[in-house]
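Submission sheet (multi-component)
Chains listed below:
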Amino acid sequence: MRLSFDTDVEAFRAEFAAFLEAHLPVEAEATERSRSTGHIPEWARRWQRLQFDEGWLLPGNPPEFGGRNASVLQQYVHREELSRRRICHSFNPQGVGIVAASLLSFGTEEHKRRWAVPILRAEITAALGMSEPGAGSDLASLRTRAELDGDHFTVNGQKVWTSGAHDADVLLTFVRTDPDAPKHKGISVLLIPTDTPGLTRRPFASYTGPDDKDFNEVFFENVRVPAENLIGPLNQGWRVANGSLGHERTLMWLGEAERMEAVARDFRPTDTLEKDWYATLVMDLQALRLLGSAALARAARGEQDVPALSVLKVFGSEAAQRALEHVLEASGPDGLDHPAQTAPYCHMAFDDDSASWFNRYARSFGGTIAGGTSEIQRTIIAERVLGLPRR
Amino acid sequence: MLFEFDAEQRLWQDTVHKAVVKEVPPTLVRAVADDGADPAPLWRVYADLGWTELTDPADAVELAIVLEELGRATDPTPYLATLTQFAPLAPAFGSPDQSGTAVFSGVTARPADGGWVLEGTARHVLDGDRADHLAVVTEAGVFVVPATDVTAVRTPVFDPVLHLAEVTFPQVRVAGSSRSGADPEHARQRALTGMALTIVGACRRALDLVLDHVRTRHQFDAPIGSFQAVQHKEADMHVAVERARALAYYAALTIAADDPRRRPAASMAKAAAGECQALVFRNAVQLSGAMGHTWENDLQFAIKRAKSGELMLGGAAQHRALITEESLAEKRTAEEVS
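Outcome: structure written.
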């Protein structure tokens, strides 16, 4: 156990900080704002491309995929430096973090060249098509059907909650290819360009406002997808789902830590009760960092402890939510003002991160629902960490 | 920050765990509670194992590992008081064979004849009735006195294994040389961290006992641990224990490294342990059903130890107030600098 990193990790941090110092886009350049998680403004595309070319986009990757073969701890300090400055390294987070990562883990060389690299270089953006009207927590029950017919699949069905799909160029889509197999064993993954005939996207607003359109319904009506767009082996899609999400989970807690860090910075407690809430936030943030860094250390040793990550997920997302609930309540009627600026404007971050307290609180439920609800996480902890019997 | 035991610490944890399982079984704790068995032989075992020599702050993480395991086992000896309350106040004092405790308030010191006179009464002194020495914190400094100089009466308490005492100093004369140079604030942080680790250990034990119960207890033709209402309470306890445990070891680590964050870290450890025990006590008793209410169930030892820890050295709410104070001061300083 130690409180500091080795000198090689600190040297890596310094090198990245120098890169940011020299190359971060200036505010005047960043006037066009991102309107969804599938939309990257032109200036932000240049920024992402520069990071890719210099090996700073995903430092853990090899140089040809936007990295420099960094260790897990180096990747951690890379995220720390971004978070300290409130910098998004990509405005298409699911494209870079999940879709490209899945293509790199499970795709062919051609998939990597044709799709992963353009996503990482922000030449195109990507969305993730997993959930369906009837398949949320029970994802494996998904019903969007893909039938192989010679050199192509024909896809029929519907996805929903597909963030940023209306602005995305491609969709990593989980489909049922064997309706007779047990539900986890008949799923495959297709990379589908969103301009394919028969594919329609309908963005719809979240409860934060009629203009906040990131969610999409995506309809597939006899959509022809080339067979070569199959990612990973046929009927092995569940493995891809676990692999791509698992990849993200090791660092997902950092997103919540960053959110809490921002709340701690922007929260000005005055009375005794608010100060008590504030202390809880400080403790939760410190504990999350400690537990997260222990998980990172395990990952650095090559140990994958997926159920233990459920502790980070449920704890981090609920702690962030509790902090935002407290700060909203502490703000009294001012908390009703919307739009409002609750943190200094930061041109490198999503604007929602500094929006009204009510908006920030309302958005926190994304953390406790998306990527496995808190209820699912608790069941995973009970059954797979604590070894309680299944029903 | 790399927050994980290294190979040596893992080995130490394993060694300590095995020794505690062997030397401090539940039957021993029960014998102490029910029959007044003397835990003194156990103290000698600890001394033989070298555990009573973990007094150097640099060994704080190794000590933490011992304290967590002893918290799990409901250690019936004055180990916690000696290592985390007495030793930090009396660094130059004591031999591994002897026990000690701290008197943090209630006593005044006045100079007399080149020495000092200590006077006053302290209540709820941990192991005050059986420690060999007392380190007394006064405004004039810290004094170390032998137990034979004071009057100590054990206080009846709800926890049958816990020793608390009312200690009276009837004008105790001490030589100037018995004044310790220890920093009471640093010592307080070590006491807080030690208590937090004890609570965390006790909570882990409570969680383990409840897990055993819900795995084996059947109702409606199923183990009750398969019901979601039960599972989610268990998961909440696990998360609370993980959180408190992380903050407790962090505090130990800041002590070992003499890191400037040690003051808020100690309060965070104590507050998180306090919050953890509240949830664990409530859920553990609830999930154990009527069985949890019986004297013969060992759950009582773990949850009483955990709750007792919360009631000593300042509770969670008090420490949260300190945490905010520290954090806001730090925030102001940072803003002034930038």
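Remark: DSSP finds eleven helices and eight strands in chain A.
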